[in-house]
Amino acid sequence: MTFPEIDKSTPHAARIWNYWMGGKDNYAPDRAAGDAVAGIYPEIVIMARESRRFLSRVVRHLAAEAGMRQFLDIGTGLPTMENTHEVAQRAAPESKIVYVDNDPLVLAHARALLVNTTPEGVTTYVHGDYHEPAQIVADAANVLNLTRPVVVMFMGVLGYAEDLDEVRSIVRTVMDAVPSGSHLVLWDGTNTNPASVASAEKLPENGGAPYYLRGPGELASCFEGLELLDPGMVPITQWPTEVDAGSGKVIPIDAYGAVGRKP
């Protein structure tokens, strides 16, 4: 496999997110952009870490309780703790996971992602862009059995598409390709706080790609035709409702998510 050259001079979403998560796979421009956003909206660091907890809870539920064995994680980002394959294969050793991302740095780290946690499972990586969902489906079909239910995941990435109709089309294209019993997992940052909106505007000012925040209702529209699992479209710290052990309160957050089942 030939790896694309990594551009270290321009901030990239996966590396900025890695920085907020406390990782080391980032460069000075990524840290500068990350600091600019966090300077206006410090809660972005909490959001990054809580998004990983949301992923872990959802994947564990779908693998252990809902019997799901195939996962398509689109826009996965850099490897970190509690990756999708680790959570899924811990609950169901035979789980198959296909990761998708378009960042050369993520591609360069694919070898780490491709290490199964169980001999029965399958973990692989597709270099692709969610703006080309039909191609992602075609590539995923080389690993996943698309006649069997699949968990389709868009975890904090759909804000890179400016138009909501395009977002809905991307999601619909992938969900149309998977059968009844499949699930959609989606979360994203929201425009529910003026500070979060202002912080998103800092990304392009500091060389990052623009990120378009939406309201919870707009995110919920991506689940049209699906059956939302309880508790529906809620802040990700409330799926399911989980009390913070330190404060005794649910952590408020400007990031909403939901899980829907295809009937």
From TrEMBL:
Superkingdom of origin: Bacteria
GO biological process entries: methylation
Segments forming a coiled coil: none
Entries under Pfam families matching the protein: Methyltransf_19
Keyword line: Methyltransferase, Transferase
GO molecular function, one term: methyltransferase activity
Name of the protein in its database record: SAM-dependent methyltransferase
Entry EC no(s): 2.1.1.-
UniProt keyword Isomerase present: no
